[in-house]
Design goal:
By secondary structure, the protein is mainly α. It has helices at 21-30, 64-82, 88-109, 111-120, 128-148, 150-156, 159-176, 182-206, 216-268, 286-297, 306-327, 329-335, 340-368, 370-392, 396-423, 427-456, 462-491, and strands at 10-12, 34-43, 46-55. A hairpin with a 2-residue loop joins strand 2 (34-43) and strand 3 (46-55). The two termini are 23 Å apart. Residues 2-81 have low confidence and may be disordered.
Length: 498
């Protein structure tokens, strides 16, 4: 989410409101025969574009192709002129987003490091399923509220969301150090820290789309590497802090570090556009405002499209599969006899391999197809659980091999989810469709992790952990099956780049 998820966030591209007047005049002159409508939509920084040319001239009934060519040329001109595509401010923005997402995605990728410690200490008398609620609620809040905070970024710019996220994340992680019961952990980390991550995530990803268009994928890809980098550094850091200063001060230091990263992001990110002006709606009741807000954010009608319906289910099962495997991975490593240092190193290795995989996934998806790559990587991630983790997990060498293989496959899957939704969505519908997808995904994660913890029980045995691994693998293979169905409704079984 992680990453995966990449992860959660309908963002409107403010560049549409910033076109220069001189280009508007030239566009009116060139399209006297054609009306071109261009809609852009960005979610967590992902975008697509569709041009619809409608011929209006009665004198040139066969001019549709030329009109489309003119429309494409005009859009290319606007893309080049409206977006800096680089420069000091743009790249400082990418760096700031990298540091901010190191906080957001890095924390999500490090939940296994936190679960491993509290499951064997403060919550040692609590079942694995109950402990799982702490992290399922954290991920659910991150995904669910991340959908609705995109509007805050659109209307207020990036600074206010980042400041709010900094305060909430620091408060939640700092307070976690004083927690001793399951409900305290849920409130501090699951709710407060989860809200902090959700509030700022949309701003950290969306602000990059204000500076880049042609190279937006590369810029966002570089920024989201911060999540994998944080996931590689934080577990080792927490392990050392647990041993040297104890859990309480380890959490406090972690909170200070996350706040420092956010403050650096706040300094480096410069808003390119002023906040949008909000049209007054004082005459509307609170219920009417709520209905309008949800209508603008979610698109339940989209489920009538079987491509989208099965794609949403596929993303949900894929996310639950990955988060389930990662949450209890550290505890499993300790159960089979590895030291705490080795357990945390395995978590770090899994996240570190994702740095390369995340960068390569976006490039490869353009070559082999987004759905094709997603199905392949998810299939191998699920297969690795059965042929590496299950039979060889009792050996340290087997776990090292699994960390590398699963880390590469799982990170790629997390990066591809929004790209697959964009593949089957019209431009003007993408934001709402992806928000709807994240809404269902959040509900799946909320119940998926605790259910997987039921297989481990109060005091996991070898057989119970084996059942947990098998259940996790089944979730992955179900996800693959759902991806195949979604692709079938789009292109049947045609062998093509899709």
């Amino acid at each position: 989410m992680t990453n995966n998820t990449t992860s959660n966030f309908a963002l409107n591209d403010l560049a549409n409101n910033q076109n220069h007047s001189k280009f508007k005049r030239s566009k009116r002159q060139l399209v006297n025969e054609t009306t071109t409508t261009t809609t852009r939509s960005a979610d967590n920084g992902f975008q697509s574009e569709e041009n619809v040319a409608i011929t209006r001239s009665s004198n040139n009934a066969g001019s549709s192709a030329r009109a489309a060519s003119i429309s494409s040329t005009l859009n290319d001109q606007n893309n080049e002129l409206d977006f800096p595509e680089g420069g000091l401010r743009a790249w400082l923005c990418v760096l700031g987003s990298f540091l901010g997402l190191m906080n957001c995605f890095g924390t999500s990728n490090s939940i296994s490091a936190i679960e491993t410690y509290i499951a064997h200490n403060q919550l040692s008398s609590v079942s694995a399923s109950s402990v799982g609620w702490v992290f399922s609620i954290y991920l659910c809040v991150t995904l669910l509220f991340g959908i609705f905070t995109g509007h805050l970024f659109d209307t207020q710019g990036p600074r206010i969301p980042i400041i709010m996220g900094t305060v909430l994340t620091f408060a939640g992680v700092f307070a976690m150090g004083n927690c001793h019961t399951i409900w305290q952990f849920i409130l501090a980390f699951g709710v407060v820290a989860g809200l902090g991550t959700a509030v700022q995530m949309s701003a950290l990803v969306g602000v990059i789309s204000h500076y880049f268009y042609k190279h937006r994928g590369m810029a966002i890809g570089l920024a989201t590497v911060g999540g994998s980098f944080g996931g590689a550094v934080f577990p080792i850091m927490l392990r050392k802090l647990y041993s040297n200063v104890g859990f309480q001060w380890a959490s406090r230091i972690f909170g200070f570090l996350l706040a420092f990263l956010d403050l650096c992001a706040l300094v480096l990110i410069t808003p390119r556009f002023p906040p949008k002006k909000i049209i007054s709606d004082k005459e509307l009741t609170m219920w009417q405002k709520t209905r309008i807000f949800f209508a603008r954010t979610l698109d339940l009608e989209a489920f009538k499209d079987p491509r989208f319906a099965f794609c949403t289910l596929a993303i949900t099962f894929s996310e639950v599969f990955l988060m389930t495997a990662m949450t209890y991975y550290g505890s499993y490593a300790q159960f089979v006899g590895n030291s705490e240092d080795t357990s945390y190193l395995l978590i770090t290795l899994m996240n570190a391999t994702g740095v390369i995989a995340r960068a390569a996934a976006g490039f490869a998806s353009d070559k082999v197809g987004k759905f094709n790559l997603m199905m392949g990587m998810l299939f191998f991630a699920s297969l690795f659980c059965l042929i590496v983790w299950l039979p060889f997990g009792h050996h340290t060498g087997g776990l090292y091999a699994f960390s590398v293989l699963f880390g590469m496959a799982s990170t790629a899957v997390l990066s591809l989810s929004p790209l697959c939704v964009s593949q089957i969505s019209r431009v003007e519908d993408f934001g709402k469709k992806y928000s709807t997808c994240c809404f269902i995904e959040a509900l799946g994660v909320l119940i998926g992790i605790p259910i997987s913890g039921l297989f481990i029980g109060d005091h996991g045995t070898a057989k119970q952990y084996d059942n947990y691994i098998i259940f996790t693998s089944v979730l992955g293979f179900v996800g693959v099956f759902l991806w195949v169905i979604s692709r079938w409704f789009a292109v049947k079984f045609k062998l093509c780049v899709y």
